[in-house]
Amino acid sequence: MSQNADLARAQQRFARRQRLVRWKSWLPWAVGGSLVLLSAITVWLFYFSSALAVDGVRVTGVDTVPVATVTQVAAAPLGTPLAKVDLSVIAERVRGIHSVADAQVTRAWPNQLEIVVTERVPVVVVTDGKQFELVDATGTSFKTVPSRPDGLPEALVVGARRDVTIRSVVTVSAALPVSLRSEVRSISASSPDSITLNLGAGVKVVWGGSDDSARKAEVLSVLMRRQAKVYDVSAPDLPVTKGEKR
Fold first, then answer.
1. Is the peptide bond before 110 cis (omega within 30 degrees of 0)?
2. In whole numbers, what is the pLDDT of the chain averaged over residues?
3. Which of 51, 62, 65, 105 would bridge 87 by S-S if both were Cys, CB 3.0 to 4.6 A apart?
4. pLDDT score for 159
5. pLDDT per residue as tens digits for the range 175-187
6. Could you give the angle at the alpha carbon of 143 between the alpha carbons of 142 and 149, nearest 5°?
C-alpha cells in the first residue's frame, strides 16, 4: 500500500510539473495575444469609434473677436474621432482672422477641441485723413474704425510705401519712454525716413527714419530739458533745436 501511495504522489507531482511546463510555454503567447487585442481595441476606440468623436469647441482668450466667428472659421469636423483631427489646420484657419495674432488648438478629452486665441493689441491708430486703422506692434493693420479711439497715438501716414511707413511709425512709437509717449498728440509720416512727432503747443520732433530709435529717444529726453519749438534728432549724434527760449 505504501508503495502504491508513493507512486500516486509521484504521478501527481509529475502531472503538476507537466501542466506548469505547458503553462509557461503558452504564457508568452497569451500575454502577446492580450496585448495585440488591447492595442486593437485602443486603436478602434481612439480612431474609429464615435465614443471619442468631436462634439463641441471651447474658445478662450477672446475679447473683441466674437466666439461665434472663431467657431465658424475654425470649422471643426464634428463627429470625427478626436485623435484624427489635424489641429494645425484649424489653428491656421483661426489665425486668418484679421484681429487674431495667434491661435493654439488642443484636444480636450474626451470630446472637445479647445482654441486659445491671442488677439492683436493696437499700439497706434493710423489715418489717411479719411478713416482710422488699428495697428499692432508688428505694424499690421487689422481693423478699421469710424473714429479715433482714446488712449492711442494717432499717425497721419501718406505717400507711397505706406505699409513700410506704418511699420516705421510703430517702431518709433515703441521706442518712446512712457512719459514722452503721453505727450505725443500725433505722428506725421510721408515716408519711412520722414517721421515727425507733434507734441502739444505746436512743438515738433523731427525724428527722421526708425533706425537707431532707442538712441534718438535717449537724446530727445536730454534735449527736451531746453524749451524749444523744434527738436531734431534725425541725426542723434548731431541734434538740433529751433525756436529755443533763452
1. yes
2. 85
3. 105
4. 80
5. 888 888 888 889 9
6. 125
- Distance in angstroms (rounded) separating the CA atoms of residues 69 and 150: 26
CATH architecture of the region 50-119: Roll (3.10)
Tell me the sheet residues that pair with 134. Answer: 125, 143
DSSP per position, 75-138: T--TTSBGGG--HHHHHHHHHTSTTEEEEEEEEETTTEEEEEEEE---SEEEESSS-EEEE-TT
Cα 101 to the center of its chain, rounded Å: 5
Could you please report the per-residue DSSP string of 127-154? ESSS-EEEE-TTS-EEEEESSPPTTS-E
What is the rounded distance in angstroms from the CA atom of residue 39 to the CA atom of residue 32? 10
Segment (H or E) for 235: none
d(CA 156, CA 189): 6
pLDDT at position 14 is: 54
Cell 482668450 maps to which residue? 61
Strands of 230-232's sheet in order across: 141-145, 132-135, 124-127, 154-157, 184-191, 194-199, 204-208, 230-232, 240-242
Instruction: Check residues 137 and 113 and name the one with the higher pLDDT.
Output: 113
Distances from the Cα of 159 to the Cαs of 24, 123, 191, 218, 232, in angstroms? 86, 21, 6, 29, 22
Predicted confidence (pLDDT) per residue in 118-150, tens digit? 999 998 999 877 789 999 988 899 999 988 888
The x, y and z cell numbers of residue 239, run together, are 541734434
181: its cell numbers: 509717449
Please state, in angstroms and rounded to a whole number, the distance separating the CA atoms of residues 60 and 92.
Answer: 16
pTM, two decimals, is 0.72
